[in-house]
Amino acid sequence: FNNNYQNNKWNKYQGVMSNSRYLQLIDQVRDASFESSKVTLLNTMLRNTNITTAQLIGVLKELSFESTTLQFAKDNYIKLVDKSNAYMIINTFTFQSSKDDFLNFIGRQK
Q: Residue 47: what are its φ and ψ, rounded to 5°?
């Protein structure tokens, strides 16, 4: 009998979302039909956990609209455990204005 679903180590490892939980999150996001449903699901699942930059990039790639992606990246920047890698997030944006906006945002954070 596997109790991983009740075991905190399955949900988080040292305060960071575990890979198994991340993969489950991505599957659930892919099943959501609308962008707003995806964002609601993501906000719910990320509410009490921290994530890596790589995980946030993976999540952002599941969103369709640049404006949603940019806002979600900004809203969840605080949850990053490896903020020194946050600059890599700009590769998820199509438009230079979004890349610049996010880099400026990072520069204003403490």
A: -55, -45
14: alpha, beta or left? (left if phi > 0; alpha if psi -120 to 50): left
The predicted pLDDT at position 15 comes to 76
d(CA 16, CA 19): 9
Residues with Cβ < 8 Å from 79, sequence gap 6 or more? Answer: 46, 49, 50, 51, 56
Residue bearing the bigger pLDDT, 1 or 48: 48
Phi/psi at 81 (5° precision): -90, -15
d(CA 34, CA 70): 17
Average of per-residue pLDDT values in the chain: 89
pTM: 0.84
CB crowding 45-77: b at 16 or more within 10 Å, else e: bbeebbbbbebbbbbbebbeeeeebbebbeebb
